[in-house]
Amino acid sequence: MSAELAEAGRALAAAGLVTAFGHVSARTTGDRLLMTPPVPLGTLGPATRYAEVPLAGTDLPPGTPREAWIHVEIARARPGVRAICRAQPPVATALASAGVAILPLHGQGSFLGPEVPVLDDAVLVRDRARGRALAECLGEAPALIMRGNGAVTVGASVGEAVALMWVLEASARMNATAAASGTPVPLTPAEQRAWRAVRSELSGRIWSYLRESS
Predict the structure, then answer these.
(1) Nearest to 169 by CA among 5, 6, 18
(2) What is the per-residue pLDDT across 89-120, written as a single tens digit (0 to 9) for each?
(3) In what order do the strands lie in the sheet with 143-146?
(4) CB 143 within 8 A of CB 155
(5) Cα gap 183→114, rounded to integer Å
(6) 155 in helix, strand or coil?
């Protein structure tokens, strides 16, 4: 699992979705997460040490980012989530600051739901209460933008969480272009459902592409 987290970090960095900051976690058991350390994700390698974070703990263990509360509270709220990705997609972050909704304008954009929720709090999430508020705002969605502070995606695997972060930024670019050119028209609910039915398959292909490109 540590090797997959390292691949995720390098893929996110190569795609321009993280720079000095960002983190990825994977559920190892029902009540623990394995998490990347607070270093640039593009530097992760075989010698990197990963912290194991208990979901029931009152403090974060040494070697974890202070925003690990994001991962802890999402994992506590959603037992089915196996991986969480925290990154800084620039266009998605800019659209949230401008009040422009990210809607499913193309097939893969449907993977993110009818509209990507936005956490209207730009303060760093460095305590359990803010982590819980973020998890509540995310709800059952696969992605969330933090106003002025990047985004979070979740998935059934590390690869899916990373792929959805890439899709989020691609969808944001499309929404920005459409909003500047006219009135964006999202896919119909039926079209969105058809695309979401193949999310797992296509997310796997995106993950393969990102790994090969890093």
Answers:
(1) 18
(2) 999 999 999 999 999 999 999 999 999 999 99
(3) 51-54, 32-35, 23-29, 83-87, 151-155, 143-146, 118-119
(4) no
(5) 16
(6) strand
